[in-house]
Amino acid sequence: MPLSSFDAIVGPAYSYPSKPVDCQECVNFECLNVGSSASPYRHMLVSTPGTRKIRFRKTGSSTIYDRLPTVSASVSRIRGIHRCSVPFMGDTLEGVVIVGSDAVWKMSPPNSEMVCEIFLLGVISEGFSPVSIVDAGAESGSDRPQKIVIADGVTMYTVNMDTMEFGSMGNTLPQRPSKLAYMDARVFMCGSTQNSGDPSQRVYWSSINNPDEWAELDFVSAAMKSDPVMSVAVAGNYLWMIGTETFELWQTTSSTGTLYSPIRKVNGVASGVGTCSADSVASIASSVFFVGGGETGRLHVYEGSSNGSIAVVSTDAMSMEFARYGTLDDAVGMCWSDDGQLYYSVTFPTQDVTWVYNINQKYWHKRSSRKNTVDHRWNITCITSAYSMVLGANGITGELYHVSAHYNDDDGEPIVRRRVAPHLKANGRLLMHKSLELELECGNALPYGQGSDPQIMLCALDGAGRIRREPRWKSSGTQGMYRRRVKWYRLGTAVDRCYEICVSDPVRWVIYGAVIDTDEGQGGK
Questions:
Q1: CATH number of the domain at 4-48+418-524, please?
Q2: Predicted structure pTM score
Q3: Which residues contact 233 (CB under 8 A, 6 or more apart)?
């Protein structure tokens, strides 16, 4: 086999339990298509964003907190962060609310020292599970002002955007609210029953433009099957009711009369696919995503579109990996946009792994965060875009971060980036690997310190990816060395080989492809 392009060194995560089939990994790298038809490259691997910690200062105080402060709770958590659709009255910038272990806070933009001012809006029931937050109400300055609605699985809270008045509905609701959605001037809610605490089969709705008013008989039940409703979401102009075994679509109706319902079921749009985790449900634009459940939906990740259709977006290799996880019931999903791309991520806490799906590119990759030299799941558990920033929170530690491609480490911790390329075979014949040259962006090293001489590790994985050879290191060049060539020679022989690339220096990594020189040797087939 002569000197040839090895474009497959750039690609997504696609690893089967059986390594000889495919053992591609893509961790803290993401694969992007190159849009220019004039470019010599079709794809590129780009390093995922890093983080910088945002600290907190209460209004009127000079004390700086590394974590979101609590009112009386002993543990700091961030259970949700939400960008409001309108500013708070008197503000010129968009409003952002953060829900902690036992309180709701209004957040101001971080200053140049990455410190944000927070104002206490109200105290809530102490807890650690994620909360659901939606915008609701009518217009600022009206008799029914814009409000923020928060459900924590115990009760529901509202924040008046005009007065910043905080209110709790206590135990007056028909059930314990856990998930919220907003459509056509109403808030829709599902949750668990007051008595048993089990998920209910009902979805309730509020009065028009008034999320403080709920009636005990204003509800609908799942129609296709009597499975509990795990979550509600809006995609397009449809309300998705996602249960444990099925999903249904509902839309606004103009019905009137004694048995008036503001929504009706869309005929012919339902499926025997539900979700195993209410917290995995997330929506953005006209799509809703969730980890499947039920008899036919297990071990898949689904995307539902505004026309009511659903499609499996996870790969068959992912499904096989999911089958080995201890549980999928604790999956947590979230959607956001960054640098023109839309993302859905799902974290499996028990398995300590995070998968991220680029909705535009249709590629999956994994993200991880390092702690004490060990890589764990991505530490961002809730996220939003505000103040021209992506704000990500660590729900376990109560820390808030600015997530940006301008950062190449996790607030000082290294980000280990790995790519395992597909198999290189020649119909069972022994191949002599003379050289491999990596095509990447060079010369972007830091002027001093860690990253001033970035290193790339190349490791040969023989035996169909199961035998790890001694890793070899090359420098991508110091600052300004744009013509640097990164090439390894005398890589040995193998019948079936994969190559692994690993980097951790805090610089921007962009890999376009590779060129490999091989010859058929003696032996093999």
A1: 2.60.120.260
A2: 0.94
A3: 181, 239, 240, 242, 281, 282, 283, 288
